[in-house]
What we know:
The protein is α+β, with helices and mostly antiparallel strands. The chain is built from 4 helices and 7 strands; from the N terminus they run H-H-E-E-E-H-E-E-E-E-H. It has 2 domains: 31 residues; 157 residues, Roll (Thiol Ester Dehydrase, Chain A).
Amino acid sequence: MALLRKLGLTLFGATLGVGGSYGYMVFGPGVPMWFGPDPKANGWDPASHAVFDKLEADPDCARVPAVYSKRNFVWGGLNQERRVRNQFYFSDKKKELVGLVHFGPDTEGPPRCVHGGCTAAVVDSALGTCAWKSGHAAVTANLNVNYRKFIPLGSTVQVRSWVDRIEGRKVFMKYKVESLDGKTLHSEGSSLFITVKRLPNATGDINANSVSAYTGFESGSSEDDK
Length: 226
């Protein structure tokens, strides 16, 4: 009987401990859970809207429509709220792309931090978008990423990319990833893009439209895209 009583108390304590830990991590302030709800899943928070309002008020900034593809490595998938969500604005005068990116619970690398590879992929996509919106149908040749501070899982950050200079077919670009208040620099770096005349149509209409609009060349096609 004593053994059964000890076993019962042990199981009860373990269940209570696991349940309590899960409840704190799911509902605790600012602590996302790997398999729990994302605290910011119901849209952008007030601090994010304040940034958007400022960008909307800038007559030189135009909102870039978010385009999601099930096949896209960065923006794809059926559950964006748990992965990567974005909203960007482009300044044609500055040749600059600026916006916010939210990293959901499924972007983890180090415990409770965003995976560095996820950050690099997001930066690469932002740089590419900036290059194309600036009139350069280009692809990445080199990407230099300097990590400064971990991005806490579940965070929303500012991503800013811009064209630095042009040398023939070479498009040199720079970027920064900062906290919403601009006080924390998470990552910064540079990249080299090379303009191309033809691309395989790997992401649907966005590539076809972009190539046609910016270069006059038609993108390639694949049976998988039909």
